[in-house]
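My main concern about presentation is that the manuscript never shows what a single data entry looks like. The format is easy to grasp once an entry is in front of the reader. For illustration, here is how one protein appears when written out as sequence plus structure tokens:
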Amino acid sequence: MDIVYGIMLDNGSGYNARCDSSLGLHVGDFCVIRKDFYLDYGQIVKQFDAPPPESTPAAPVEEERESGGTVFSAKKNEIYLIQRKATVVDQGKAHENQMRAKSALRITGQYVDRLGLPMKLINAHYSYDGKLITVQFSAEGRVDFRELVKLLSQEFNTHIELRQIGVRDETAILGGIANCGRPLCCCRFLKDFASINVKMAKEQDLSLTPSTISGICGRLKCCLKFEHEGYLELEKTMPRRGELCECKDGRGRVVDRNLLTQKVTIQLENSTHTVICPASEVSVVYLDKYKMRGGAGQGDPARQKQFGAEDATPESVEENETNPAPQQQKPVRQDGQNQNRPHGQQRKQGDRPQHPAGEQRPQNQNRPQQNNQNRPPRPQRQDGGNQNGGNRDGKQNQNRPRRPQQG
């Protein structure tokens, strides 16, 4: 039966590999792995319980992280094959490759400085048979390293692979001491970088100061996600800030709380004195004005807003629906037209009164008629222009040539 293992290389990257149980490999053993066109050397750091399918091909299974690194996953169907357990000769050759990798990293740094590329080299890894050199680096953006690959291929006369990783993977590889005084979690046991947001820090009652919730890498701390579920369980039995509570010293409001110690700080009413009490000795008080009244429709704000009464009940609703208030009818116009016609509705063709041909339409008596008999006629010039001798703007048109008349 095949067993799936998680392999870790000396440069911090990893992948999955499988082998038969007859090899007797355990966590911590070194082994030689057959990859695409070369042999690799790594250490077993994890053993998966679920065996792979029988029809699994030997293909790469590196799962890319959000930040650019790799993680172990037993869900991948494509895995590599472990060839054998490492011997003393294999271990000696692996140490020799590590020394060659340091020399290759130094030479690569010289070429980077010569080309002026904005990249920070982290480490280099030689494959077991020396057919591939993998160089990991970090950068703020994308880097065009095609010219660098050409120069390194000519220098080492082998295949070159440049891999860009994120700052979180870089910190996990280099290691360090966190603010709590312990080694970094990502360097010790957290190999899968999950998504982290500021909401997790709020739910854990932490200060949102960037220096408090950020790690050495400059990103949010990995422990925010790792401890999030535990804080949610502790928060279920704790009152929230601002709630009115009662304790043995009196009534007051919660101004602070500690989820780990399960204690709350209460400021008493009409006093500046604060007391610290366990959460089990505190009870939340709900005022009468916030309590819902009895009845199916009395506590519904939408129903109260609709009927305009605080004591709206289903009986009053049914009464209003069965006996609606009579609507006031609008007066009808003398000309027979209805004023209650809905807004925007067009008049039908049969609504307009028809007049026989040759008969004049009756005029509205109330509308004043315009009398233009007393209006003096506008004087006209003989040349067809204005009497003032100019155009509408009052300018003279004496020098303007006249348009010739067509015969």
